[in-house]
Specification:
Strand order of the largest sheet of chain B: 1-6-5-4-7-8
Helix content of chain A: over 70%
Structural class of chain B: alpha/beta
CATH architecture of the largest domain in chain B: 3-Layer(aba) Sandwich
Pfam family, one (chain B): MNHE
Number of domains of chain A: 1
Largest interface: A-B, 37 and 31 residues
Oligomer: heterodimer
Number of domains of chain B: 3
Distance between the termini of chain B: 53 Å
Strand content of chain B: 15-25%
Radius of gyration of chain A: 18 Å
Membrane topology (chain B): Multi-pass membrane protein
GO molecular function (chain B): monoatomic cation transmembrane transporter activity
Shape of chain B: extended
Largest sheet of chain B: 6 strands, parallel
Helix content of chain B: 40-55%
Mean pLDDT of chain A: 81
CATH topology of the largest domain in chain B: Rossmann fold
Radius of gyration of chain B: 30 Å
Strand content of chain A: under 5%
Number of helices of chain B: 12
Subcellular location (chain B): Cell membrane
Low-confidence stretches of chain B: 7-40, 374-379
Number of helices of chain A: 3
Protein name (chain B): Monovalent cation/H+ antiporter subunit E
């Protein structure tokens, strides 16, 4: 039998995997660079976040947990920055965002 | 081998520019010569230089243009018009250093490929008075005439006087003097604010303390060795970065208050992230992919760098919204669905950021929509 604590860890891990998969599916299904940046950079953040939270919980209280939390903090700082850098570069290059009017153009 | 000469006199004293390479300097009009199959005229290009953000690119453009452009040039003359009487000896010294750098850059751009481009750098007008654009025009046209130069390439940010914008009148006047003038099609890379700013002891101590704390936390021990190496590392970090990482005065009270409010903000942000993530997961996994992306722009009611950055990153972290660009407080945000757009313009995150940085009173107040700024669509 798993304890409640282990159950929580497993739940966190499952959530992490789920959002990781959502990020991958989003990357494949969404139509253009901007929408893909949504899918890839952020559901990914939560996926990685939940996985790291599971790791922190599994490690218990102590120094490794502090380090995992720091990892989380830096992940939450760097991920949006990277997404912003990519989309801004795209905007500077004049790439037009996909809109729902483009739907059905055989796109 | 490409020929690069540097001359630091004013151009009247042309003795110092005598070549020792044995190649005759073409005087006057174009001299046709054969260079590796392609006939090249003995034309020269004049490039006035001064300290400018686009100078490096202008040098590259000039060299590339001279070697492989439509009108090839035989020689490129980089000249720095600088007057000792107006600007002082120090300025002349820095002009000299700049010209040396230009010569090095030109050498780098040439590489080993082209054996026959002469690059000259020269300081001109040292003993003249240079005030108005007219003075610079006279100086440059005199130089061009003496050297038999007919074409001028201008750096778009050329401004040796450091006072009035010189380029437009300069361009027109040089053309009137019968020279072919082109402005180099170069842009400054990124517009940078000054990286190094004023800072005091407070910033130094705070940065050193933060670095020290972080070092000990990561190291996970308080042994004498770690205490000493940590102190050394923190001192080095603070010495190098104290005028870069932290700006503004250090007010411990305010800092603690902000950190405390940040602790309140974090769960709220996490909650928003989870909710919005579930929403995006639903949208992405839905068979018909119900997205309606749109770019919205609004002015956020937050000020100064760190709050704006926090808001921009929070918007990006919240799925369905993605900050594309921020100029001061003007946000350009890409939104994935109608409901994420609604949430953004309701201004919940913005209020939360205001709460963290300015306190509870500032948290109340209208969101972007209520300010009548409801996201004009970017065409």
């Amino acid at each position: 039998m798993v304890t409640l604590y282990e159950g929580a860890i497993i739940a966190l891990l499952v959530g992490g995997v789920f959002f990781g998969i959502v990020a991958a599916v989003g990357l494949l299904r969404l139509p253009d660079l901007y929408t893909r940046a949504h899918g890839a950079s952020k559901t990914d953040t939560l996926g990685a976040g939940l996985s790291l939270a599971a790791a922190a919980a599994a490690l218990g209280s102590g120094l490794p947990t502090v380090k995992v939390v720091l990892l989380l903090v830096f992940l939450f700082l760097t991920n949006p920055t990277a997404a912003h850098a990519i989309t801004r570069a795209a905007a500077d290059q004049g790439i037009e965002p996909w809109t729902s009017e483009d739907r059905g153009d055989g796109e | 081998m490409a020929l690069i000469r540097t001359c630091h006199g004013h151009h009247d004293n042309s003795d110092c520019c005598q070549l020792s390479s044995g190649r005759a300097r073409p005087v006057g009009g174009p001299v046709a010569r054969d260079r590796g199959g392609a006939t090249v005229t003995g034309e020269k290009l004049l490039v006035p230089v001064s300290e400018s953000p686009t100078l490096r690119n202008t040098v590259a453009y000039a060299v590339r243009n001279a070697v492989e452009g439509e009108d090839r040039y035989d020689a490129v003359h980089f000249v720095y018009p600088a007057s000792r009487r107006v600007a002082g000896e120090e300025y002349i010294e820095s002009a000299r250093e700049l010209l040396e750098r230009v010569a090095v850059w030109a050498g780098e751009d040439l590489g080993e490929d082209d054996p026959d481009l002469t690059v000259e750098t020269e300081l001109i007008g040292v003993d003249d008075y240079l005030f108005s654009p007219g003075d610079y025009v006279d100086l440059l046209t005199d130089y061009a005439r003496d050297e038999g130069i007919e074409a001028v390439l201008l750096d778009p940010e050329f401004n040796p006087g450091e006072n009035t914008p010189l380029l437009p009148p300069l361009e027109a006047e040089l053309e009137r003097a019968g020279l072919v003038v082109e402005t180099a099609p170069v842009e400054r890379g990124t517009r940078r604010d000054r990286l190094v700013r004023r800072a005091g002891l407070g910033q130094f101590v705070l940065l050193a303390a933060l670095s020290y704390g972080f070092y000990l936390l990561i190291g996970g021990s308080l042994a004498a060795f770690d205490l000493v190496t940590g102190a050394i590392s923190a001192a080095i970090v603070a010495t190098v970065l104290w005028r870069i990482s932290l700006t503004g005065p250090v007010r411990p009270g305010q800092l603690v208050a902000r950190l405390a409010r940040m602790l309140v903000f974090t769960p709220y942000l996490l909650y928003e992230i989870v909710v919005a993530n579930l929403h995006v997961a639903y949208v992405v996994l839905h068979p018909s992919l119900p997205i309606d992306p749109e770019v919205v722009e609004f002015d956020a009611a937050v000020w100064s760098e760190i709050p704006v950055t926090t808001l921009a990153n929070s918007i990006t972290l919240t799925p369905g919204t993605l900050t594309v660009d921020v100029t001061r407080q003007h946000f350009t945000v890409h939104t994935l669905t109608e409901s994420s757009r609604e949430d953004l313009l309701d201004g919940g995150l913005e209020r939360a950021v205001r709460f963290v940085f300015y306190g509870r009173a500032a948290a109340r107040g209208p969101g972007p929509r209520e300010r009548g700024d409801d996201g004009g669509e970017e065409s």
